[in-house]
Model the fold of this input.
Amino acid sequence: MLHESYFGMTVKDETPERAFRRGEFLMGLSGDTRVRLSETQVSSRLDQEVVILDLQSSSYLGLADLGARLWQLLAQSIAVAEIERIICEEYEVDPDTCRRDVREFLAQVISRGLVVVDAEDT
Done:
């Protein structure tokens, strides 16, 4: 079964192990944490969406709208706080909601191995 996240991410239902890992990553993210796209994925932008292929699992997912914008920001190493600042400005969302939603998105894609925390932050 497929479901949609706040950021237009279409994914297969997650396993309990992945949910646990996502929670670990969510707790470990701070504003100073630098993140970037993993080398174990390839992605392509199609209009307002991004299609991502996970090279390790041979699965794919799609991001629309805000998720696609977040993916674009992750193309180079960037601090979580900088992502939150940009999204708050561009989408006029309150900072607390933005912080919570951005970090949940990051925890999901980190737990899937699609985004990594830069080595200097580990």
Summary: The radius of gyration is 13 Å. Helices lie at 16-28, 66-73, 80-91, 95-111. The longest strand covers residues 41-46. The first helix runs from residue 16 to 28.
